[in-house]
Amino acid sequence: MPKLSDKDRAEIKYLNVKNDIRNLVNKTGYEDIIKYMIEDLDHIDDINNTQSMYLFQIIASLQKVLEIYPRLEHV
Description:
This protein is an all-alpha fold. Helices cover about 80% and strands about 0% of the residues.
């Protein structure tokens, strides 16, 4: 049996939890999940740290999604 790459293992892991994710989205909705992700990631300690800069960019993107997503539901 060939050895799986990290990418293949990640895809298998995703496929194993895909239905759980779908059920969570159906139960709570995207907006609450995005809000939780923002809260969970918002622990920037040192703005000069490269990792913190990436977290800041992710949080800013999620906030933009949270602002725009409700408009898409009514299209």
